[in-house]
Design brief:
Layout lengths: L7 E2 L13 H4 L27 E3 L6 E2 L6 E2 L7 E3 L5 E2 L22 E5 L15 H14 L7 E2 L5 E9 L5 E4 L7 H6 L10 E4 L5 E8 L4 H11 L9 E9 L2 E6 L6 H8 L7 E6 L12 H39 L4
Parallel strand pairs: 1-12, 7-14, 9-15
Antiparallel strand pairs: 2-5, 3-4, 5-6, 8-9, 9-12, 10-11, 13-14, 13-15
Protein name: Ras association domain-containing protein 1
Pfam families: C1_1, Nore1-SARAH, RA
GO molecular function: zinc ion binding
């Protein structure tokens, strides 16, 4: 049996006609297969994870719990995060964490200027619209520069297909279902807490510098790339926990920019050319501190409002209790003082 790793091909790229010569070789490229490795047996996960040093998460922490998969949100009481491995969870989930701390992970991060597409700043990365002739010329130039068989191909409808390479640099663990049944794409899109597979989870840390190639269409969006990667590796974490970044090296400086959900990675690849220094793609945790509330459903937003109200009421109760206690002590001191 061949041990050659499989390349991810999104569903809508299923061949509609006769494959061209060499296409079978083209759609199988060298890539690392990501496997759970030495995760503990779920039936024996009764011992709390060792080595964690949990502390309250920072005020900018808006993310998903690494244990249960639900969204962590609040103004005052957000959640807990391990100071070593960055495992993040709800307060209520702390006692259920069975994954051992892996310690600080050296992922080879270089100093980078990071830009976020969620902020209201002048857009300097808008890409030009290419005509059919310009697209065809760009594809010819691109194919003439590459040293591999990962060519781009122009389709009759004006779209084109090609390959992108994504480097996975995830600090926190990912979760896969404990059962053998893989989650469907619909389960991932429905969000956390709605599928039976998300209730029984096994967590593990991805290997350092894992890389995967994807065969995509020019109209494939960044969000679809993330979903395809997660589905390939049976990851049941919410896709919104992750973000696709573009990395570029210019004038000795590394720049990182988070792609919006609707940006088209293959189009960016074509415009930048095949150089990895000019453009590469990195999958990271979506820990920018910005929350895209439009991505949540109406029931989820109503639930967040209820959480906010309960937290506000509890916070006000604690503040009033502190002031009442202080006032009481002052009054007791006044009564204890002799008159005159």
């Amino acid at each position: 049996m061949s041990a050659e790793p499989e390349l991810i091909e999104l569903r809508e790229l299923a061949p509609t006609g006769r494959a061209s010569p060499g296409r079978t070789r083209l759609e199988r490229a060298n890539a690392l297969r990501i496997a759970p490795g030495t995760a503990r047996n779920p039936a024996r996960q009764l011992v709390p994870g060792r080595g964690h040093r949990f502390q309250p998460a920072g005020p900018a922490t808006h993310t998903w719990c690494d244990l249960c998969g639900d969204f962590i949100w609040g103004v005052v009481r957000k959640g807990l995060q391990c100071a070593h491995c960055k495992f993040t969870c709800h307060y209520r989930c702390r006692a259920l964490v069975c994954l051992d701390c892996c310690g600080p992970r050296d992922l080879g991060w270089e100093p980078a200027l990071e830009r976020d597409t969620n902020v209201d700043e002048p857009v300097e990365w808008e890409t030009p619209d290419l005509s059919q002739a310009e697209t065809e010329q760009k594809i010819k130039e691109y194919n003439g520069q590459i040293n591999s068989n990962l060519f781009m191909s122009l389709n009759k409808d004006g779209s084109y297909t090609g390959f992108i390479k994504v480097q996975l640099k995830l600090v926190r663990p990912v979760s896969v279902p404990s059962s053998k049944k893989p989650p469907s794409l619909q389960d991932a899109r429905r969000g956390p807490g709605r599928g039976t597979t998300a209730r029984r989870r096994t967590s593990f840390y991805l290997p350092k510098d894992a890389v995967k190639h994807l065969h995509v269409l020019s109209r494939t969006r960044a969000r679809e790339v993330i979903e395809a990667l997660l589905r390939k590796f049976l990851v049941v974490d919410d896709p919104r926990k992750f973000a696709l970044f573009e990395r570029a090296e210019r004038h000795g400086q590394v720049y990182l920019r988070k792609l919006s959900d609707d940006e088209q990675p293959l189009r960016l690849r074509l415009l930048a050319g095949p150089s990895e220094k000019a453009l590469s793609f990195v999958l990271k945790e979506n820990d920018s501190g910005e929350v895209n509330w439009d991505a949540f459903s109406m029931p989820e937003l109503h639930n967040f409002l209820r959480i906010l109200q309960r937290e506000e009421e509890e916070h006000l109760r604690q503040i009033l209790q502190k002031y009442s206690y202080c006032r009481q002590k002052i009054q007791e001191a006044l009564h204890a003082c002799p008159l005159g």
